[in-house]
Design brief:
Blueprint lengths: L1 H70 L7 H15 L5 H15 L4 H4 L4 H10 L12
Helix pairs in contact: 1-2, 1-3, 2-3
């Protein structure tokens, strides 16, 4: 009996070592994958938080640009001047921001601000325009004629 145990013992030890190595390897691979997924999740959360921070600043800058053009009557507000002022103020507020990020933030904020304005710029059927124009009466002193 001892001879059989002595003969089988090295084979059992080798098999146990192989099985244990395989289990440790599989568990290790799963742990590494889990750690990588958690790391990606944390990076994504940090990215989202940073994006939301920049978006909040962009909204404040948008409001400041609107206020600047409202209280500065001698500056003509055009799309180019407003965009330039927005970019200038964003660079001051977020040093190191790229031109692409500024454009993206401006587009996002403009989309949010102008979301409710679609009804104002929607096309109106011609008969409605004529009916509205006929319903409007102006005081005589505001009407000017050219000779």
């Amino acid at each position: 009996m001892n001879e059989i145990i002595n003969a089988v013992q090295p084979a059992v030890a080798s098999a146990a070592t192989l099985i244990l190595t395989a289990v440790i390897s599989a568990v290790g691979a799963k742990l590494v994958a889990l750690i990588n997924r958690r790391k990606e999740k944390v990076v994504a959360e940090i990215g989202a938080a940073e994006y939301n921070r920049k978006l909040g600043i962009a909204k404040q800058v948008w409001g400041a640009v609107d206020e600047y053009f409202r209280i500065t009557p001698n500056v003509q507000k055009t799309v180019d001047t407003a965009s330039g002022k927005f970019a200038e103020m964003m660079c001051k507020a977020l040093p190191g921001i790229t031109t692409d990020e500024i454009k993206q933030m401006q587009a996002v904020v403009a989309g949010e601000v102008n979301a409710g304005r679609a009804a104002l710029t929607a096309t109106v059927p011609e008969q409605d325009v004529v009916a509205t124009a006929e319903a409007v009466t102006l005081p005589a002193d505001t009407v000017t004629t050219t000779a």
